Amino acid sequence: MKQQQVAHDSNPLLIEQRKFITSLPKQARSHFFSPTHITPEQRAEIWEDQADLGEKLVDDFAWATPDSRLLPVFKHFGPIVEVGCGANAYWAKWMHNEGGVDVVAFDVSLNEGGKISASKKSNKSDSSSKTRNKKKGLEIREGGPEKLSEDAEMKDRTLFLCYPDEDIMPAKTDESEEEDNRPLSMAAACLEHYSGDTIIYVGELFCDTLSVDQAPWGRSSANEFQERLGCEYHCILKMKLENDWLHVRDSLSVWKRSETCCMVFQGSDEEDEGDEEVEYKYIPPDEILPVDAAAPCVAHLLKKNGDDVKSREHGTVNKERKRKRDDEVTQHSQIAGNAW
Asked: Edge-to-edge strand order for the sheet containing 158-162?
């Protein structure tokens, strides 16, 4: 009982969210947006209950929900620097308390950052709270994307962004035109200042969202961030979050900065053409994600030819031959990134 209580206390957001989702009928969980499985009245009632609870949990904890499957990722890629940790710094505290991960977390407002209710208030940080929770392995500071370039130590840390653009950064009206052209997205601004090699991102990604209004980029980061992320980095890991709200498809993804190769094509003297430069990303073979993916309804189309032969011979081979054959099949079917 004591161990169970500790688990609850360490991640109360997960417990409260799971309690709500599991209380719903299976039909509602699996077919919430179906026009035939759920009546409009049922959907409206569930949506209102989820919205009320969701806003409270965002204000009390975080926009997305960590779970134990994700902890090894942060331990592997630590130390971490998080920008936009919110007033609660929920993820930073969770990964430090649960896994001993070394984290420096920033937010421009240590009092109201990340809270839905903050949109109704002034989002200014109390100058007396510029640093909180300063202890070995966990430091929460006031600041935004610019801190990534101001402190040289930050380039040696993995950048963590969780729902960085749930609220787009407003443009300043009292600055020069050149400064007004800076990225409006907080996440994109982080890419401007970050010189490290690895980014961990939590939220919805391109084409993952269920929302037609927020498609195709999703609800948690701006298109300018995702476009630049996909151009300058390559994804080496993607994991579905264990718990999501009914309308959300969050994931954790890890991105490595890509090396580039420039190819120069000489222009034609006859046609007075200049040289053309073309850049390509180099992705090492052991950092390439598998491409094959199939929904359960068409998973059989990815079935390997050898699977049918294996099935027919199952009753005719002895155990030793079967063991050797299975070992060989396993060995030859391994591809880069197969563990994911």
From this structure: 131-135, 138-142, 103-107, 80-83, 158-162, 198-203, 251-257, 233-240
Cα dist from 39 to 24, 27, 49, 246, whole Å: 14, 11, 16, 15
pLDDT digits (tens, 9 = 90+) for 221-255: 888 999 999 999 999 999 999 888 999 999 999 99
pLDDT above 80: residue 125 = no
Can you read off the two tokens belonging to residue 70?
Answer: 């994700």
Residue 337 burial by Cβ neighbours in a 10 Å radius (0-12, 13-18, 19+):
middle
Long-range Cβ contacts of 213-217 (<8 Å, 24+ apart): none
Q: How far apart are the first and last CA of the chain?
A: 33
**The overall pTM is greater than 0.85:** no
Q: Buried b vs exposed e over 219-245: b needs ≥16 C-beta within 10 Å?
A: bbbbebbbebbeeebbbbbbeebebbb
| Residues 118 and 109 sit within 8 Å (Cβ to Cβ) | yes
- Measure Cα distances from 91 to 7, 280, 295 in Å: 15, 35, 31
Tokens representing residue 105 in the block: 């977390």
Q: How many CA atoms lie within 13 A of 302 on its CB side?
A: 11
Burial class (CB in 10 A: 0-12, 13-18, 19+), 79: middle
